[in-house]
């Protein structure tokens, strides 16, 4: 539990929960207050006396505007670090989970990052349908409910969750104010096991947005500026521009406009920049004007290009692909067997084959034309024959590419199974899969 304090007057530090835990016990001594960003207080004991506390614990904290967080994340990836990076900014709090240097999950309190908003934004589901489901189900169940109603395919839900995690990651990399915290927090088998994204690929994809945001920041220094409307739409604006223009009342900041329009800070900044360039809007340090009477223009969902599949890190690998195929087939059967105990194996295999045939799980040529058998396995002879046939097209490390393709399939099956299984069964399945993968690493 985190104890909260409040600064009163010029120098008085007052705990908000006087009956709460006493995290300051055992920390007596003289402390120096170090100069930091206004969102962060750092006290250093002088002289140091050492000591440690159990996990979870903050092992690194700093100013998000002090240096590029992309450099820190690149280091975490290369170090194969496991834990959590949390960023507190005026736009909200976001968290990314890492396991052995790869992104395994993310969360955010920004409404634009919610799965329902992602589904609408990508054009998979109408907003009215999402709102109806949310009246009957909690937000954590909206994806599964849409699949069960036949509104959404399982592989499309997987794609949207992957996109959601990517967008939260990009928002963290792009932030230039606030505070970040690196938390040494052990994760159980359930936490983040259904998603795995290449950190290096995500960082490469962030470079474009970093460059674009730097261009926007020349005219829009930060997201706390207010935006007012100078003239109405000329009928030639893009839909998102029309929608944001209708919201301009001089009383909302760019961050608040993003929340109202269900856009990320990056997308809201980009739209406002275009409106400024076109002479439709103006910026102000303070709120101005009265709310306009124009109603917001309804937006039709537009699907952006899905994020690229993770690029595997090249590494030495044996020339024989049979052990890889056999271990993954064993994993696939293990997942199917667990689902069959719930009586859902037929639907499970059908959804997996639909995703496989549509190349929604991997673009690798070794999977083209294959289908899961009733026991959950892929035909080994055909799989190995496809590997040999396409080996020259799999890059300098063909076996690593082969393994990555099967890993992509595995994470989709785990994601799909996680929506069907009880928490304990899901955690036990994740543990067994981890043990099976370890045998492949050791070989």
Main sheet makeup: 5 strands, antiparallel
- Tell me the helix content: 40-55%
The main sheet orders its strands as 5-9-6-7-8
Uncertain regions: pLDDT < 50 for 5+ in a row?
Answer: 189-193, 291-295, 313-318
How many separate helices? 14
Q: What would the average pLDDT be, to the nearest integer?
A: 83
Kindly state the number of beta strands.
Answer: 11
Taken together, the total number of domains comes to: 4
Structural class: alpha+beta
Notes on the structure:
- A five-stranded antiparallel beta sheet has the order 5-9-6-7-8, covered by helices on one side.
- Strand 1 (5-8) and strand 2 form a beta hairpin.
- Mean pLDDT is 83; it is low at 189-193, 291-295 and 313-318.
- It has four domains: 1-51, no CATH class; 55-214, no CATH class; 220-284; 322-442, no CATH class.
- The protein is an alpha+beta fold and 443 residues long.
- It is built from 14 helices and eleven strands.
- Helix 6 runs parallel beside helix 9.
- The two termini are 43 Å apart.
SSE topology sketch:
Elements: E1 5-8, E2 12-15, E3 30-34, E4 42-46, E5 57-63, H1 69-78, E6 83-89, E7 92-99, E8 102-108, H2 115-121, H3 127-136, H4 142-148, H5 154-174, E9 179-184, H6 199-217, E10 226-229, H7 239-247, H8 254-261, H9 265-277, E11 281-284, H10 322-340, H11 345-357, H12 380-390, H13 398-418, H14 423-442
Antiparallel strand pairs: 1-2, 3-4, 5-9, 6-7, 6-9, 7-8, 10-11
